Amino acid sequence: MKVQDLVRRADELIQLAQATLNTCPGRSLDALADSAKFGELRSAALSFIERTFGREHTYYKEFSDKCSDVTPYKVETGLGILKAIRDELAGGWIETTRGLLSAEVFADFLDMANHLLEEKYKDPSAVLVGGVVEEHLRQLAAAKGIPVEESRGGHMLPRKADALNADLTKAGVYNKLDQKQVTAWLDLRNKAAHAKYGEYGEEQVRLMLEGVRQFVARVRP
Q1: What is the pTM of this model?
Q2: Residue 180: which CATH number?
């Protein structure tokens, strides 16, 4: 989902919170918000926060704990949290955070792949590096609003990495030279995953590892 879509959804939830607060007669200490309206707000907001930030994020915990009943104070606190979320999304902070976390995780996996290669385990190293490539393509696609899933046999399934590679090139995220290189990396990964170990050598895996490290650092969501 694009950041502007997240901001739009946050705006909708803010409006819902305000409407819920408006059901409190005079907002006196003993006034209570409409329970149905509050239930809709709480479930929708928690679902949104979980999908956007995760259950372990402070926003989820704060909203769950502090917007917990129909008293005006609790609803107003929930409204304030939603406004803070909206400001953070609009400011682009979520994309910055995701990019930093992705870079850190990918670096760890690539370091593991390098260790495997140094120990002469070229095949699992190639599979690991290929996994980084595919996940990076998915994150790039998601950031650009390119679908990462498709309906097959009545189920939503992940799109093929080759299809994402083509769409990212068309969208101008990277050029055709990068596309060809990504295709070659995916091909090497597939050979390793399907036990075609004699069709590539250790040096090719090493070049793939270094190329992917540079690609991930250069082409960011």
Answers
A1: 0.56
A2: 1.20.120
